[in-house]
Amino acid sequence: MLRQEINELLTQTGPGTGMGALFRQYWIPALLAEELPDNDSPPVRVKLLSERLIAFRDSEGRYGLMDEFCAHRGVSLWFGRNEEGGLRCPYHGWKYDSTGQCIDVPSEAADSTFCSNVKLKSYPLVKIGDVLWTYMGESASTPPLPEYEWVHVPAEQTFTSKRLQESNWLQALEGGIDSSHVSWLHSGALDRDPLFKGNKGNEYNRNDLKPFFEVTDSDGGLFIGARRNAEPGTYYWRITPWVMPSFTMVPPRGDHPVHGHFWIPIDDENCWVFTFDYLPVRALTVEERQAMIDGHGVHSENIPGTYVPVRNKTNDYLMDRDAQRRGEAYSGITGIALQDASLQESMGPIVDRSKERLVPTDSGIIKARAKLRRTVLALQADGIVPPGVDPAHHRVRSAAVVLAKEESFIDALSDEMTVREGVRQATV
Amino acid sequence: MIAIDDAAVPAVENTSLESWDSARFFRAGADASGVLLTELGGETTALATRLDGVDAVIMIVTDDSGAHIAATIGAACSARSIMTAGIVLADFEGTEPRAAVAALRPFARVLIASGVEDDLNAMLVAIRA
């Protein structure tokens, strides 16, 4: 369980909240680059950390992220005209540049300086990889840009998708650091999904349903190791890194691409799940990329033109009881992403953690919550820069390896858990 | 919750000051008869006696001095199918307690290798101890 006041501290991310202040220390994914494909393409509504914003790409290719509403009468600038170096409100023609600065108020005299005193709240928006990143904190404290490996490998080696999840961000994150559910919830997918099947690690997963866990701090968050019995005298280890505030990587399987997530609060009851697959040393094959586009692996099949999953709570995620009985889908839901999301959304928008009954094997979740709480309080009390802000903290990898029983993953895998350019991921 | 070595005792004592439903707090020791558990502020009894009816044991270590005790407790818990966890308090100066960790690893279904005192409280709250 978690005391109610701590649950509120960790789940509320709007302006003026403790966790909101923490998220505002980081560069976070705001939207996919594909959402603003061209100069002067239509603006996009973006809600992040309970702030309603508008994103656009001007005639010169500059990205802007600013208050959604015109300073004049509060019209949504989603209706705006994106043209000639700015976004113009269609109501009375007020125009804003990519920094939110008003650059034209047509009703004022030609030589008026009125518009120079009008500026919408805005945040930087930077393209790195397939993602547009923003920093929503104080500009004087802007940290260096993110250095996650998945957005820095060549384009042919990486793929990113996005989906809506109708739950608080913490419920989603906690699924990402809970390694023990894989052998149950995703058991059907291990043999069938084109991005999961056909590797030795799946056998170890299936053959030992009671993993042991070791959790240790990293510079940016945690490493969570789950070990299962392998051949005599050895353990199969799966190492999941969590980088604060909400980046997780799934341990790899065979030569399949490595995947992971960034869990970003939209508001307190919804979040965006940015999902990636990449390979450090080779291009994705045509078949792998198509499988991701089709929603296999940890990606989702979305309603065309949206980031809303086809399988969602309005249609009970297209539950298939026959597939459940046949063992093709342990929960009856097709697709790994929605297998997770369906259960996490079923908890309600913000689960009441005061009613939980955790067990020690939930230690990754317990430790992450405790670390988040301590970090929020240290930021509030002393302004301490939190883990995960330094780009060096981003250069981590997940790993899946077989070690002798007497070996500690912390000692044995320090290289494998670190980004090494030109070196393949550690995988079984 | 058992303090395996002397330096772990203050953290366990501090945690014991909170209000708990059923958690009990001990420091471990040993004599010729085997491992003994002394309840904080209470009596000393044999390990086997204390494990009756227990559903989870959390061992707290800071150094290697109690490695053999940790191994004995871990084995006893394993034989009784008692969920066992280990927390290594990392905010102590000195060398990493490798022997104690190695002793815990075969038995502790959960091992927190870089614990802080606050983790003791968080763990007990989480499992409704």
Strands, helices and their partners?
The complex is a heterodimer of chains A (428) and B (129).
Chain A: H1 4-11, H2 18-23, E1 27-32, E2 44-48, E3 51-57, E4 63-67, E5 81-83, E6 86-88, E7 95-96, E8 102-104, E9 122-123, E10 125-128, E11 131-135, E12 158-165, H3 169-176, H4 182-185, H5 187-192, H6 200-207, E13 212-217, E14 221-229, E15 234-243, E16 247-249, E17 258-267, E18 270-278, H7 286-293, H8 321-326, H9 336-346, H10 363-382, E19 399-404, H11 409-412
Antiparallel strand pairs in A: 1-11, 2-3, 3-4, 4-9, 5-6, 6-7, 7-8, 10-11, 12-18, 13-14, 14-15, 15-16, 15-19, 16-17, 17-18
Chain B: E1 2-3, H1 9-16, E2 26-31, E3 34-39, E4 44-46, H2 47-50, E5 56-61, H3 67-79, E6 83-89, H4 98-104, E7 110-115, H5 117-126
Parallel strand pairs in B: 1-2, 1-5, 5-6, 6-7
Antiparallel strand pairs in B: 2-3, 3-4
Features:
A: alpha+beta; 11 helices; B: 129 residues; alpha/beta; 5 helices; 7 strands
Describe the structure.
- The complex is a heterodimer of chains A (428) and B (129).
- With 428 residues, chain A is of the alpha+beta class.
- Chain A is 21% helix and 25% strand.
- Chain A has helices spanning 4-11, 18-23, 169-176, 182-185, 187-192, 200-207, 286-293, 321-326, 336-346, 363-382, 409-412, and strands at 27-32, 44-48, 51-57, 63-67, 81-83, 86-88, 95-96, 102-104, 122-123, 125-128, 131-135, 158-165, 212-217, 221-229, 234-243, 247-249, 258-267, 270-278, 399-404.
- The radius of gyration of chain A is 22 Å and the shape is globular.
- Chain B has helices spanning 9-16, 47-50, 67-79, 98-104, 117-126, and strands at 2-3, 26-31, 34-39, 44-46, 56-61, 83-89, 110-115.
- Chain B is built from five helices and seven strands; from the N terminus they run βαβββαβαβαβα.
- Chain B is α/β, with parallel strands linked by helices and 129 residues long.
- Chain B is 33% helix and 28% strand.
- Chain A binds chain B through residues 1-3, 210, 212-217, 356-363, 365-367, 369-370, 374, 405-406, 408, 410, and chain B through 56, 58, 83-85, 90, 101-102, 105-106, 108-114, 116, 118-119, 122-123, 125-128.
